[in-house]
Amino acid sequence: MSRPSIVWVRDDLRIADNPALSAAVARDEPVIALFVLDEQSPGIRPLGGAARWWLHRSLQSLAARLSEHGGVLVLRRGRAADVVPALVAESGAGAVFWNRRYGEPERTIDAALKTGLRADGLDVQSFAANLLFEPWTVQTGQGTPFQVFTPFWRACLQAPAPRLPLPGPAVIRGPGRAPASEDLASWGLLPTGPDWSGGLAETWEPGEPAARARLRDFLREDLAGYDRARDEPAAGVTSGLSPRLRWGEVSPFTVWHETLQGDAEPGRFLTELGWREFAWHTLFHFPALARQNLRPAFDAFPWPPLDPGHLRAWQRGRTGIPLVDAGMRELWRTGTMHNRVRMVTASFLVKNLLIDWRRGEEWFWDTLVDADAASNPFNWQWVAGSGADAAPYFRVFNPELQAQKFDPDGRYVGQWAPEYRGQHADTAGPIVDLRASRAAALDAYEYVKRAGR
C-alpha cells in the first residue's frame, strides 16, 4: 500500500527549485502539497493587509501550477502543530518534507513537529531553499554573528558557492483521492468593504510564472543600467523581485545563477541579495528584531509623546514634503516603494517627526507586499540607527536634497503627488521645519550617547 508524501509549503510558493517538492517526487509515491494558514501559534505575526492580498493570488497560481503537473494543493487553517499531524493521519502519509524557515517561532514549531512525526515512524526532512547561506553557517572569526554587512558578505563570498537550482518536476503524482481542502475565498485574505486593492492588481501579477518572467525581463532589459540608475525612483530599473523572493515564487539560487549566466555584468545587484541574507542572519540571531532595539543604548532614546496627527499625515502622504508624500502614496496605491524613497520616508518619520521606528515598521508591515519578518524591521532599525550596520543617527536624509539629486526633473513626485508640480504649487507647508527637526533629532542622539557612557 502506497503511503503519500506531504510537502508542507510556506514561503516557497513555487515548483522549480523547490527541494522539498523534489524530494517528495523522488519517493515515487503520491504527493500532497499542503499550505497551512497559521494565525494561532504562539509568536506567529499575523500578515498585513497587502501581504494577505498577495498570498491569496499566489496560492491561486500555485494550485494551478500543481494541477498542470498532476499534483494537488490542500489548504487548511489552524495551528500547524495540529493541522500537519491531522493530515498525516487522514492521508496515511509516510513522509513529510518542508523547506526551512528562520524566524524563532517558526523554527520552534518545525522542530517540535519534526521530533513528533519522526517518533511516529515518518520520514521527515527539511531543506535549504530560501537563503543562499543559512544563518548559522556564517560567523566571525570569534564564532559570533556578524553585525556589519561588508565583512558578513565577504565571508559569504568566501564560502562554497551557492548550489545550482533544481529543475521543477515534469510530473507530480497526486493521490487517487485528494484530502478535503478549505475554500481559499473563505479565508478572507482579500480586502472588502472597501476593496482598496485595485492599485495592487494593476501593478502586480503574483505567482511563479510571472516571477520567472520578471527575472528574465530584468536581466535582459534593466540589469545593464542598474548600477547607474538604481537610485532614481522614476528610472524604472529596479528588479521588482522583492515580493517574489519574499513569497518564494522564485528562489535566490535561481536569481543568483541566472544573473551570473546573463550577458550583463551583475554589478551591485547581487549585493542586494546579500543585504537580504544579512537581514535574515540578524533575525536568526536576534529574534526580537521587530520589537527591540538591536543596540541596547537606543533604549534610552527620548521619544517625545506621539503626535497622532503627524503619524497620520505621514501614513497618508500629507506631510507637505514632496518626495515623502510621493513615496507614501506610491506605497498605498501599489504595495511597494522605491528603495531610495523608502529610506527617505523612514528617515523623515524617525528623525524629523521623532516618531518611534516601530510605528513605521508596523505601517510598512501592513502596506508592503514584500514585508517579511527579517527585512522589514532590519531596514527600519538601519535607518533609525539602532540596528546592525546602522546608518549613524546624525545621518538625516534631507528629503529636499534627495529629490534634487535623484528626481531632479520631478517625474517621480509628479506621478504620485502631482499637486507639487510647477513653481506655484498650491500646497500647505511642511508639517515640521526640516532644519529645526533635524537639530532636535541630533540633540536626542547626543542624549543617547551620553546615557551610554
Automatic annotation (TrEMBL):
<dbReference type="InterPro" id="IPR014729">
    <property type="entry name" value="Rossmann-like_a/b/a_fold"/>
</dbReference>
<dbReference type="InterPro" id="IPR018394">
    <property type="entry name" value="DNA_photolyase_1_CS_C"/>
</dbReference>
<dbReference type="InterPro" id="IPR036134">
    <property type="entry name" value="Crypto/Photolyase_FAD-like_sf"/>
</dbReference>
<dbReference type="GO" id="GO:0006950">
    <property type="term" value="P:response to stress"/>
</dbReference>
<feature type="site" description="Electron transfer via tryptophanyl radical">
    <location>
        <position position="303"/>
    </location>
</feature>
<feature type="domain" description="Photolyase/cryptochrome alpha/beta">
    <location>
        <begin position="3"/>
        <end position="132"/>
    </location>
</feature>
<dbReference type="GO" id="GO:0006139">
    <property type="term" value="P:nucleobase-containing compound metabolic process"/>
</dbReference>
<keyword id="KW-0157">Chromophore</keyword>
<feature type="site" description="Electron transfer via tryptophanyl radical">
    <location>
        <position position="357"/>
    </location>
</feature>
<dbReference type="GO" id="GO:0003904">
    <property type="term" value="F:deoxyribodipyrimidine photo-lyase activity"/>
</dbReference>
<dbReference type="InterPro" id="IPR002081">
    <property type="entry name" value="Cryptochrome/DNA_photolyase_1"/>
</dbReference>
<keyword id="KW-0274">FAD</keyword>
<keyword id="KW-0456">Lyase</keyword>
<dbReference type="InterPro" id="IPR006050">
    <property type="entry name" value="DNA_photolyase_N"/>
</dbReference>
<dbReference type="Pfam" id="PF00875">
    <property type="entry name" value="DNA_photolyase"/>
</dbReference>
<comment type="similarity">
    <text>Belongs to the DNA photolyase family.</text>
</comment>
<feature type="binding site">
    <location>
        <position position="226"/>
    </location>
    <ligand>
        <name>FAD</name>
    </ligand>
</feature>
<feature type="binding site">
    <location>
        <begin position="238"/>
        <end position="242"/>
    </location>
    <ligand>
        <name>FAD</name>
    </ligand>
</feature>
<dbReference type="GO" id="GO:0009416">
    <property type="term" value="P:response to light stimulus"/>
</dbReference>
<feature type="binding site">
    <location>
        <begin position="370"/>
        <end position="372"/>
    </location>
    <ligand>
        <name>FAD</name>
    </ligand>
</feature>
<dbReference type="InterPro" id="IPR036155">
    <property type="entry name" value="Crypto/Photolyase_N_sf"/>
</dbReference>
<feature type="site" description="Electron transfer via tryptophanyl radical">
    <location>
        <position position="380"/>
    </location>
</feature>
<dbReference type="GO" id="GO:0071949">
    <property type="term" value="F:FAD binding"/>
</dbReference>
<dbReference type="Pfam" id="PF03441">
    <property type="entry name" value="FAD_binding_7"/>
</dbReference>
<dbReference type="InterPro" id="IPR005101">
    <property type="entry name" value="Cryptochr/Photolyase_FAD-bd"/>
</dbReference>
<feature type="binding site">
    <location>
        <position position="269"/>
    </location>
    <ligand>
        <name>FAD</name>
    </ligand>
</feature>
<dbReference type="GO" id="GO:0003677">
    <property type="term" value="F:DNA binding"/>
</dbReference>
<keyword id="KW-0285">Flavoprotein</keyword>
<protein>
    <submittedName>
        <fullName>Deoxyribodipyrimidine photo-lyase</fullName>
    </submittedName>
</protein>
